[in-house]
Every structure is written in C-alpha cells, then in structure tokens.
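Lab intake sheet, docking and co-folding queue.

SAMPLE TYPE: protein with bound small molecule
LIGAND NAME: 2-acetamido-2-deoxy-beta-D-glucopyranose
LIGAND FORMAT: SMILES
REQUESTED OUTPUT: full 3D complex as structure tokens
PRIORITY: normal
SUBMITTED BY: R.K., bench team

The fields below were copied directly from the construct record.
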Amino acid sequence: MMILRLALAVAISAYATAQPASTSSLVTYIFGDSLTEVGNNNYLQYSLARADFPYYGVDFSGGKATGRFTNGRTIGDIISTKLGIPSPPPYLSLSQNDDAFLSGINYASGGAGILNETGIYFIQRLTFNDQINCFKKSKEVIRAKIGDGAANKHVNDAMYFIGLGSNDYVNNFLQPFMADGQQYTHDEFVELLTSTLNNQLTVLFQPTSHFHFLLFLYQKYQNRARDSSEQIGWSSALSFFFQHYYYYILSQYIYTFCLLSQ
Ligand SMILES: *[C@@H]1O[C@H](CO)[C@@H](O)[C@H](O)[C@H]1NC(C)=O
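RESULT FIELD (auto-filled):
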C-alpha cells in the first residue's frame, strides 16, 4: 500500500510538473461511488445513499455535511489539492449555463457500480452508465460554450479519475438477495465486470485522441470475499486491466494505477 501510495504521489507530481505554467487550467473529471462523491446524491430526492446529515463533514472545511461519505475530504479532494486546483463540483449542482462546466466536474454517486443493477435498493444513484451520459451532456454544454474544436481539446487534455468496483461486490454480488450472486459463478461475474467496464471506457473515451487518465480500481472489500477464489478472481480482474489498458494507456499517455487499499 505504501509503495502504491508513493507511486500515486510521484505520478501526481510528475503530472503537475509536466503541465505548462498554470496548473489552474488543469481540468479533472471524476467518476465513481461513495468514495469519490462530493454531493450528487443530495440532488436525488429518493436516494437512500446519502451523506447530507451530521456527523458527515465534521472535519471538512465549514464543518457541515456536504454529501461526502466521510468526516473529511474524499480522495478526489486530496488529489485536487495536490494538483493545486479546486475539487470539482457535483454535476447535479450545475445549472445549464454555469461557467463551472469548464472547470472540471465530479459525477460520482454513492451506491454506484459498474453494473446497472448494483445498489438498486438505494432507489436512486447515478450508475456508471448514468455518469457517462452526464459526461456526454456536459460535453454538449461545453461545445455550445466554446465551440467544437476547443471543446475537444478541453476534454482531451483533462485528467480522468474513475473509482468503481467495490459496490459491484458489497451492494450486489455478495448480497444473497441480489440475483447476480445466484446467476453467475465468480469467474463469470469478474468476466461480466471487466467486459462491461471495457465497453464503458470505450464509450467514455471514444472520439478523443489523447488523455491523462488515472484509473482506480478499489479492492477495499477483498477481506469480505467469501473464499480465496474470489480474491484470486479480483487479482485476475486487476491483471486484466493491466494487460488490456496498460498498452492502451502507454500508447496514449494515460497514467494507470491500481489502488489496493488492503
Ligand atoms: C444499462 O443501462 C443503460 C442505460 O443507462 C443501457 O443502455 C444498458 O443497455 C443497460 N445495460 C444492461 C446490461 O441492461
């Protein structure tokens, strides 16, 4: 963990130094679940995945609950600070003409997973597919504001964070009342997750040529795995991403790291 953390810190500072003089022009797009959410679910009236009440946020600036599922900052906030930029606002807080559309956006939503059905019992959340749709809508707003060419450059030069995967286990596969755990063996489930994510990343990044991209695959819940074969399953999922995306990533100047939190 220590080494990975160090690698992340090094990558961030390498990125920051690689940027032209003003890092304030760096734009980040954050996708994910409760580990990276900054308040989208506050805008979903019926969502049961909420963090807008005490004592969430007691250690955050202002000391009030913001929708972050933590007493303090999320990993997105921490990385933004390290990059010297403000942490981007929740997508659902923006109004159509908001200039904030040009300064990076956070689409993360507590309860979200790679799969549509993950976290369904929270009633409302932005699944990764929803987040990708929101990003698509954001690009339309950005195009309308600054034109096609500038908008493409704007999103191509951005840095992307994706933190997803835990809920596909904790709020799906490992829950006895969810169908996926009955329907799929673990190997099949890993295959479903990886192929789904593969398609989602293809859609997310389709028309662009060059990205700065940081992929987090949380392995936080490894200890809850039902048996050791599930842990092996996760490792094979992670190595799948290294095999498939490392090449893609190197060829496109994308930084990839797996954050293993256990
Ligand atoms: C998941 O939801 C998206 C819409 O957000 C839909 O296009 C897609 O077909 C769904 N996937 C599955 C496997 O149901």
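REVIEWER NOTE: Residues 116, 129-130 surround 2-acetamido-2-deoxy-beta-D-glucopyranose (CB under 6 Å).
SIGN-OFF: pending second check by T.M.
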